[in-house]
From TrEMBL:
It comes from Vogesella aquatica. It is found in: Cytoplasm. Keywords: Cytoplasm, Methyltransferase, Ribonucleoprotein, Ribosomal protein, S-adenosyl-L-methionine, Transferase. This is Ribosomal protein L11 methyltransferase. One of its GO terms (molecular function) is methyltransferase activity.
Length: 296
């Protein structure tokens, strides 16, 4: 079995509507991406949790999949007519049937965090069986270790966890930071996320890694202080959550923050300096990790 893929050029004003209409007229799927991805003109699009992204890329590509016997020209023309635009430029290619599971898995290799800490998908053999290996597969929840923000937090945990510390992972995503803390020797560990799917993923991933952590939604977080609070989310929620996160850190305890763009580091550090003696920011591929020690 094979499919036909139409790669259609569209601007930001019409891309989303055109993708929706393509689905209405018979496309099997329609995804939008930056036409300039991988070039110097690539346009990053960032959205904070709970807030919609209010723009698409100025030059977008719609990749739309059709049945092998579909009249792609007729369907693209029909979609353009419904959107009241001229028929956009596009190309059509044939997509052969493949083992999509195997193809997807081949894109994810073990990730080295440090000499002793690796993240290894379940279908891979660990490169270093003697190391601490986190078994984690890509899924619906954020956090596989490949993103700089996750790496920055994992590296901090690897360097700073001595054993027995209580840990709160606020915005736990896949649970990777809570799981890593436990495998590095932390004590009682709690993970919180606003997304019920993330909580479910965290529970499943903890079981996969034979560790026990307590995961839940924000309304399950009771008053209490921790030796370490880590929050790998984004700048806007970190701005709003400063007082809450600080209230959960023991005097002399540590806070670790990421999901912050490099240009946001100074502002966020100044906000948290109200409660913490802040360390120098650490940067990785345009992202930042902040950390600090809670003052009395």
């Amino acid at each position: 079995m094979a499919w036909l893929q139409a790669t259609i050029h569209a601007d930001s004003a019409v891309a989303e509507k055109l993708a929706d209409v393509l689905m209405d007229v018979g496309a099997l799927s329609a995804t939008i991406e930056d036409a300039l991805a991988g070039t110097d003109d690539e346009q990053p699009i960032f959205g904070e949790p709970g807030e919609p992204v209010d723009q698409l890329w100025s030059h977008s590509l719609i990749n739309s999949l059709f049945a092998e016997d579909a009249d792609v020209a007729l369907l693209v023309t029909a979609a353009a007519n419904q959107c009241h635009i001229d028929v956009p430029s596009y190309t059509v290619s044939r997509v052969e049937e493949q083992d999509w599971v195997r193809l997807t898995q081949s894109q994810f290799d073990p990730i080295r965090i440090s000499d002793r800490l690796w993240i290894t998908p379940t279908w891979h053999t660990s490169p270093d069986p003697a190391a601490i290996n986190l078994q984690l597969d890509p899924g619906l929840a954020f956090g596989t270790g490949s993103h700089p923000t996750t790496r920055l937090c994992l590296q901090w945990l690897d360097q700073q966890i001595q054993g027995g510390e209580t840990v709160l992972d606020y915005g736990c995503g896949s649970g990777i930071l809570a799981i890593a803390a436990l495998k590095l020797g932390a004590g009682a560990t709690r993970g919180i996320d606003i997304d019920a799917q993330a909580v479910r993923s965290s529970i499943d991933n903890a079981q996969q890694n034979s560790v026990s952590a307590d995961f839940g939604l924000p309304d399950t977080l009771l008053p209490g202080e921790y030796d370490v609070v880590v929050a790998n989310i984004l700048a806007n929620p970190l701005r709003m959550l400063g007082e809450l996160l600080a209230s959960h850190v023991k005097t002399g305890g540590k806070i670790v923050l990421s999901g912050i763009l490099a240009e946001q580091a100074e502002e966020l550090s100044a906000i948290y300096a109200k409660w913490f003696d802040m360390d120098a920011a650490v940067f990785d591929e345009g992202w930042t990790r902040l950390s600090g020690t809670k003052r009395p």
